Amino acid sequence: TSVISDRINAMQESQTIAMAKMARELAAQGVDVISLSFGEPDFQTPQYIKDAAKKALDDGYTFYTPVPGYPDLRQAICDKLQRENNLAYKPENIVVSTGAKQSLANAVMSLVNPGDEVIVFSPYWVSYEEMVRLAEGKTVTLVGSLENGFKATAQQLEEAITPRTKLVMYSSPCNPTGAVFSREELAAVVEVLMRHSQIYVLADEIYEYINFEGQHVSMAQFDEIKDRVITVNGFSKGYAMTGWRVGYLAANKEIACACEKIQSQITSGTCSIAQRAALAALQGGRTSADEMVEAYRRRRDMVLELVKDIPGFRTPKPSGAFYIFPDVSGYFGKTTPEGKTINSAYDLALYMLHDGHVAAVDGGAFGAPNCLRFSTAAADEKLREAFIRIKNSLAKLV
Ligand code: PLP
């Protein structure tokens, strides 16, 4: 028997982190590894945000912060939601947390009872399933088809709903697929949910700014369901602030209070300096993000060109985020030069790491075991080199 609780023993280690660890170990042995496994902007945080953090220290922001965030930051988040998303919220609806990850976890813990079903649009971000497991809920996945750009449909949702369904979770733009839900697609989802008043929606909009096509649509913009939607966003992706750990959610007051309660017992308010920096980030608008998005778009286009030359990669064009997510099942059953059979995307990821020295993540971690996820948040030359190596390694499979 283990000294560790059943709760934690039942939990999976994050696959993205496991792959990055393997890549780092190879690199430590002197191997020139190109890691495309991490979902992290390769840009520095913009200077004006760094300056605000330095000033916060000099101004004495070194004390405990209010649990749901500084009042002026919560107001600035309301202003952002109004200005950019046409969403009216008051500061009492906003809870600032230690990354969007904590916002998501707070919301799941606040809403899910043991045995409740949580419908997750799949492919999904790795942590959703583990958060639901921690809350003793049951994940029900809706698998989006390759033909539909990996987007689950309202009809699939309708079929998956049971009296135990409590919550629906999705990200748009989506990690890992880069899919963006259109207004029409979300409207169809809302129409289904209007017939089931017990169901809430957790809308993860952390990649909002990294959108190459079309407009970002928030589920909460549909007035008839707004009260049942929890919108999560943050600073990690759009402002290149992954290490600062600031995210937030907007929800009805009852849910926001529950999130504040759990946060008050587990972490307290997030870092004072990071919150002052986040306030400055919002006051600077989205200009810095727009510059980064141009680079992400250029890289997406470049990588899509490069993968056209790789047989057996079926890659829908991502509309946002910074990943490509090819279906690689065409390689299953092939044999490596060492005589090993490739039986899964995980086997293929290991082969590519050891033969081509390129790290990707197995889609199984995202509910899509036929796929691999490659981050395109890397320098152009690195991306070019990586996909040449991949092509050469794959060509050796028979
Ligand atoms: N949601 C999605 C879909 C993500 O990809 C990530 C980060 O990888 C997060 C949430 C968490 O972001 P944060 O750094 O704000 O915790």
From TrEMBL:
CDD domains cross-referenced by the UniProt entry: AAT_like
InterPro entries: Aminotransferase_I/II_large, AspAT/PAT-like, NHTrfase_class1_PyrdxlP-BS, PyrdxlP-dep_Trfase, PyrdxlP-dep_Trfase_major, PyrdxlP-dep_Trfase_small
Keyword check for Transferase: yes
Domain Aminotransferase class I/classII large: 32-386
GO biological process: amino acid metabolic process
EC number of the protein: 2.6.1.-
GO molecular function: pyridoxal phosphate binding; transaminase activity
Keywords from the named record: Aminotransferase, Pyridoxal phosphate, Transferase
Pfam hit, one: Aminotran_1_2
EC class (word): transferase
Record flagged with keyword Transferase: yes
CC cofactor: pyridoxal 5'-phosphate
Similarity comment: Belongs to the class-I pyridoxal-phosphate-dependent aminotransferase family.
Protein name stated in the entry: Aminotransferase
